[in-house]
Design a protein that fits this description.
The complex is a heterotrimer of chains A (about 260), B (about 260) and C (about 325).
Chain A lengths: L1 H6 L1 H20 L2 H24 L1 E3 L7 E3 H32 L2 H5 L6 H29 L11 H20 L8 H14 L11 H8 L2 H13 L5 H29 L2
Antiparallel strand pairs in A: 1-2
Helix pairs in contact in A: 2-6, 3-4, 3-6, 4-6, 4-7, 4-10, 6-7, 7-10, 7-11, 10-11
Chain B lengths: L2 H46 L9 H30 L4 H6 L5 H29 L5 H6 L1 H19 L5 H18 L11 H9 L1 H14 L4 H30 L2
Helix pairs in contact in B: 1-2, 1-4, 2-4, 2-6, 2-7, 2-9, 4-6, 4-10, 6-9, 6-10, 9-10
Chain C lengths: L9 E12 L8 E12 L3 E5 L6 H8 L7 E6 L4 H9 L2 E4 L11 H11 L4 H14 L15 H12 L6 E5 L7 H16 L3 E6 L2 H7 L2 E6 L2 E6 L1 H8 L3 E6 L3 H7 L6 E4 L4 E5 L2 H10 L6 E6 L2 H9 L6
Parallel strand pairs in C: 3-7, 3-8, 5-6, 6-7
Antiparallel strand pairs in C: 1-2, 1-4, 8-9, 10-12, 10-13, 11-12
The chains are: A mainly alpha (about 260), B mainly alpha (about 260), C alpha/beta (about 325).
GO molecular function, one term (chain C): ATP binding
Subcellular location (chain C): Cell membrane
Family (chain C): Belongs to the ABC transporter superfamily.
């Protein structure tokens, strides 16, 4: 039964693409460590420096009224790592495959269809994002920053985050015309990274700004990871999961629609 | 026109096509970082009164640090990726070297352009700092010198290195494993007095710390003349040594 | 599914096949293929001859079930590319004009990974890859990066890759363009061997010698239409004399006037004059008798180039 499912074209097609990327990854796995290096640096910088300046973070609903700054930031960095790990793959790397390497021209001459390629790339990006989160998560745990058994939810959470941003990245990359355009992507991603409660809680903002921030996919991603890792479980976590699922599915639909238009000669 | 100026004009011509994008980025980056880290995080820091900042508001502390770090980033990026691309076959350097220009002219012209980029994005950053009300316009102008010096102390030696690099992944590696750690631990986001003792001595020796200290002194005032002389001397020496080394490696690379 | 219903052994059948490119965001549509009919039988080598922009590659991409058909009907292996794209592609091998090798993979990995796209078992592909590397004479390059290969090697690897699924039909779009003579001959020899093994070949080219060497039958295309079809010999016999006399003059205009009556037919090119005659040497003697002194004179057998010139008044390769 499972074997038959695995062999069906709907699964085997995307799986073949994942396999391709895995073959390349065998030569370049160390890039994963490089990718984890950056969030670890942030974490150290927070732990050694900024944490002492900030002290404790007040007012996180339900749980501990004041949480240490590093404990507050670590989950946000985890969510961001899952996001970046997945999105770098479907933006930079896929742009290169679309415009420079023309990887898909030969693949689409085989029985694989555009949707197999799209699903395969998203599945791969999802694996990458999750791998980054797992390695960085191990570092976070080693620093003693996970405080609750609920923290195991970080794993499925990061899968969901990676899926949502992998799909979003795939949709975005179909609009990109040159490397210059990535500056525009940065112009959206950087403020999201800075303002989505990565470094300080929502309470700092005035209420209208709070509402805007709550609409950001990264904010929801951080919620999905931060609450369980601080041992706070509430409806917000479920809502965040739902948000990311819908956001990912819509992005995926858009990406498929766009790819059908750009890849067919 | 002097040969080096011809090379400078080449880079300016190229820049003319993309300048709008870079200006937007040069304004948006400090704006976003100062708003998020300075104003947002600053609320928590200022409320905590930890004593590490000796009473300086966090935004005031952060702004000059970020300014110097941004100068480093501009210097590093402009001195690595374009140099690497240009030095490859089919790039601008071999083409320019086939004209009467000498390698040292090519280096000189490109270096001048990098200086222009560092200064331009530094001035845009300063405009944002002034808009945030951290310093007045006059004091801000005083910081332009330190910004230029910091950027060039990175750019000059790195150009000499990048011209001989064989793979782009090395540039990414430099950025990730050298520039990012410097960015985080050179007194940009928090005073290095918070670092463990041994790390503090290391941090003091880095060019970014020297640049941050110099810029902060110029921006906040109250800097010790002796310390300022040390910072300036350090950065000038690094720039001069970088130019000297780059002359050698440009000549070696382009005369073969 | 997949039975050749349209007569015994017809693998590809096109009737009134058209392709219209509509530029994205408006603009005037261009008709790359303007209604063509052809049939390809099992085991034959079928060629599309024509200059750049004639619609050859576009036709190939439609047959490959990659580019959607704009009009007319197309059956490949008895199936409609529109509805059975993956099933058709599973039984085709495709060698596009530009090598679309996966430059992130090594030579052998290119074969292994490509085989997986067809859903073949890993063990089978491994064995097949070893055979194909041997076939393409790339055994000692197996673990190199693709970028380290010469143009001829890349093209051989592309062909080896296209054979990984043991295709019924092999599509080759300008297989030897850009290769040096030695690499071309090696490639022809390999393609001839495939043909002997019973693989149906469909190829485009703008080289006459290639079409004459490899094709059993061919069509000549120009501006999206078929202007002639038949066997290479039949086309030459039907549209040409046996020999051609090529003459160059200091003053072509003056000379042409004096020898206008010679040969079956003449063709004026910017740099030379072609005299079509069954006996070229005779024609040359006749030229000398008129007192005209050509700078150079060459008698050669006529070929497909001359057929094309006759049909369109233009040379194939500008």
């Amino acid at each position: 039964m499972l074997r038959a499912l695995w062999r069906s074209p709907a699964v085997a097609g995307p799986a073949a693409l994942v396999e391709r990327n895995l073959v390349i990854y065998r030569h370049t796995w160390y890039l994963l460590l490089a990718e984890v290096f950056e969030p670890v640096l942030y974490l150290l910088s927070m732990g050694v420096g900024i944490g002492a300046l900030v002290g404790h973070v007040p007012g996180l609903g339900g749980g501990d009224p004041s949480v240490g700054y590093v404990d507050f930031v670590a989950p946000a960095l985890l969510a961001t790592a899952a996001m970046n790990g997945a999105m770098n793959e479907t933006t930079f790397n896929i742009y290169g495959k679309l415009k420079m390497l023309h990887t898909y021209d030969s693949i689409l001459a085989t029985p694989l269809r555009i949707r197999d390629v799209a699903l395969g790339e998203v599945a791969w990006a999802l694996l990458r994002g999750t791998a980054v989160t797992v390695v960085f998560g191990a570092a976070v745990a080693a620093f003693g920053l996970l405080h609750s058994p609920w923290a195991v939810l970080i794993l499925p959470g990061s899968l969901l985050i990676a899926f949502a941003f992998a799909a979003a990245g795939l949709a975005v990359v179909t609009y990109i015309r040159s490397w210059q355009d990535f500056q525009l992507v940065q112009l959206v991603m950087l403020p999201m990274f800075l303002f989505a409660t990565t470094f300080y809680p929502l309470g700092v903002y005035a209420r209208p700004v709070q509402i805007a921030v709550e609409c950001l996919p990264l904010y929801q991603s951080i919620e999905l990871v931060r609450e369980p890792s601080l041992g706070v479980m509430n409806a917000g976590v479920g809502l965040a999961a739902l948000y990311l699922l819908v956001f990912g599915a819509l992005s995926m639909a858009l990406a498929l629609h766009r790819l059908e238009r750009t890849l067919v000669p | 026109m002097a040969p080096a100026l011809r090379e400078f004009c080449y880079w300016m011509d190229r820049y003319r096509r993309v300048w709008r994008g870079t200006v937007v980025i040069s304004v948006a980056n400090p704006l976003l970082f100062l708003a998020a880290m300075g104003a947002g995080l600053g609320k928590l820091v200022d409320a905590n009164h930890s004593g590490h900042l000796t009473g300086t508001p966090y935004l005031d502390f952060l702004a000059p640090g970020l300014l110097a770090a941004a100068a480093m980033q501009t210097g590093v990026i402009e001195a690595t990726f374009p140099v690497f691309q240009s030095a490859r076959s089919g790039g601008n350097y071999p083409a320019a070297a086939a004209t009467p220009m000498r390698p040292v002219d090519i280096l000189g012209g490109h270096l001048l352009f990098v200086a222009f980029r560092v200064l331009l994005s530094g001035l845009l950053f300063l405009a944002v700092v002034v808009a945030f009300g951290v310093v007045g316009p006059a004091r801000a102008l005083l910081a332009a010198g330190p910004v230029l010096l910091t950027g060039m102390a990175f750019a000059a030696p790195l150009m000499g290195w990048a011209v001989g690099v064989d793979r782009q992944s090395r540039l990414n590696g430099l950025y990730r494993f050298v520039v990012m750690p410097l960015y985080m631990f050179s007194g940009t986001f928090f005073p290095i007095s918070q670092l463990p003792h041994w790390l503090r001595s290391v941090a003091t020796c880095t060019p970014l710390y020297q640049g941050v200290a110099l810029t902060r002194g110029a921006g906040l005032g109250g800097s010790h003349p002796g310390a300022t002389a040390v910072h300036v001397g350090y950065l000038l020496a690094l720039t001069a040594a970088g130019v000297w080394a780059a002359r050698r490696s440009y000549t070696r690379r382009l005369n073969r | 599914m997949g039975d050749e219903s349209a007569g015994a052994g017809v693998l590809i059948e096109a009737v009134g096949l058209r392709k219209v490119h509509t530029p994205r965001g408006g603009g005037e549509a261009t008709e790359a293929v303007a209604g063509i009919d052809f049939r390809v039988h099992r085991g034959e080598a079928f060629g599309f001859l024509g200059p750049n922009g004639a619609g050859k590659s576009t036709t190939m991409r439609m047959v490959a079930a990659v580019s959607p058909v704009s009009g007319g009907t197309l059956r490949v292996l008895g199936m409609d590319p529109k509805t059975h794209g993956p099933a058709i592609r599973a039984r085709l091998g495709s060698v596009p004009q530009d090598d679309t090798l996966d430059t992130e993979l090594t030579v052998r990995e290119n074969l292994l990974v490509y085989g997986r796209y067809f859903g073949l078992p890993r063990a089978e592909i491994r064995e097949r890859a070893t055979q194909l590397l041997d076939f393409a004479r790339l055994v000692d390059k197996a673990d190199e990066q693709v970028e380290a290969l010469s143009g001829g090697m890349r093209r051989r690897l592309t062909i080896a890759r296209s054979l990984v699924n043991r295709p019924d039909i092999l599509l080759l779009d300008e297989p030897t363009t850009g290769l040096d003579p030695q690499a071309r001959h090696l490639l022809w020899e390999r393609l001839f061997r495939l043909k002997q093994e019973g693989v149906t070949l469909l190829l485009t080219t703008h080289y006459m010698d290639e079409a004459e060497q490899l094709c059993d039958r061919l069509v000549v295309m120009d501006h999206g239409r078929i202007v002639a079809q038949g066997t290479p010999r039949g086309l030459i016999a039907g549209h040409c004399t046996r020999e051609v006399l090529e003459l160059r003059f200091d003053d072509q205009e003056a000379a042409a006037g004096k020898i206008r009556h010679l040969g079956d037919r003449q063709e004026k090119l910017p740099d030379r004059l072609l005299v079509y005659a069954d006996d070229g040497e005779d024609a040359l003697k006749a030229v000398h008798r008129t007192g005209v002194e050509p700078l150079t004179a060459l008698v050669r057998r006529s070929g497909l180039e001359d057929v094309f010139l006759t049909l369109t008044g233009r040379t194939l390769v500008d």
